[in-house]
Amino acid sequence: MDTQRFSYNKQSIQEAAQLLRSGELVAFPTETVYGLGARVFDESAVRRIFVAKGRPSDNPLIVHCAEKADLMRVSEPLPSNRKQLFDALYEAFCPGALTVLLPKHSSVPNVVTAGLNTVAIRFPAHPIAQALIRAAGEPLVAPSANRSGYPSPTTAQHVLHDLSGRIAAVIDGGACAVGIESTVVNILTESLTILRPGSITKEQLDKTALEQGFQPFVYASGKESGENNAAPLSPGMKYRHYAPNATVLLASSLEEASLLATTNSPALILARPEYADGATVHELSEQSLYGALRKADSEGFQTVILVCDSEVQNNIALMNRISKAASEQ
């Protein structure tokens, strides 16, 4: 299969939508990372996502909607107090980088949710994503458009590197603005839970929760993360993710990173932007992390050393991705 690379225009959106309606897979940009799209009700196409990515079948997918009215097709109604909270979250953060677990509608194939009775819903803010969903005529499932376990793609070239010949097309929308995946929350349980941290922070979510009479959010436990072979409630929880082929090491300072580099050469050092010089030290941020990890592999570095000083450690979402990238699981 030859993977087409579309520039963004009205014609390419229609061509990509026709591919989706024909059961093909199409990658497209969101504000977070590039997603690999299939129509949510096309079970055969959804199953091919797992094959194309090499993704474990117990890792649920996020459903991307363009309109709030799309919820009626993929989710059952919420209890009144939870609906009030959802509406408040929607008004505060959607469209945007927030994914919410909702009761699964019976029409959603079980393969989408890994057999769970919840479905993860997001309303992407990127105009290409919104246009493609509308043109396709139904919500799209769209995990990150990369080979499973590797750094998520933030450019169309990243997608082609991983999936060329495995999918029908990618729409090139340039680099993604946010650079890491969405925040995922569960509002169905007694305790409001953050299943995956992202650019929408706990502090922002807590403000909305408190305004609606709820207690602050808590972070997910091991059980929710899929320990003991349980199905994870959200993508990005159970398995090794975001990792390059190079070995990933963590340092607490530039000095420590430099020492590690002498015994782990050739090494690529990543640190906060104010320390990056573009030569020996490259930028470490939410927006640049995945691109830098891919750079390490493409340029033959054996080791990536991430400088996780106190400021980086305070960035919960960034540290979540760094920890997953450095994990051997």
Features:
eleven-stranded mixed β-sheet, DHBP synthase, alpha/beta, 12 helices
What does this structure look like?
The chain folds into two domains: 4-229, Alpha-Beta Complex (DHBP synthase); 247-326, Threonylcarbamoyl-AMP synthase, C-terminal domain (Rossmann fold). The chain starts with a strand and ends with a helix. Mean pLDDT is 94; it is low at 225-229. α1 (10-21) packs across α6 (127-136). The protein has helices spanning 10-21, 43-53, 71-74, 80-93, 110-113, 127-136, 156-163, 202-211, 254-263, 289-298, 310-313, 316-326, and strands spanning 4-7, 26-29, 34-39, 62-64, 98-103, 118-122, 140-141, 169-172, 183-186, 193-196, 218-219, 247-251, 267-271, 281-283, 303-307. It is built from twelve helices and 15 strands. The strands form two sheets. An eleven-stranded mixed sheet has the order 1-8-2-3-7-4-6-5-9-10-11, with helices on both faces. A four-stranded parallel sheet has the order 12-15-13-14, with helices on both faces. By secondary structure, the chain is α/β, with parallel strands linked by helices. β2 (26-29) and β3 (34-39) form a beta hairpin.
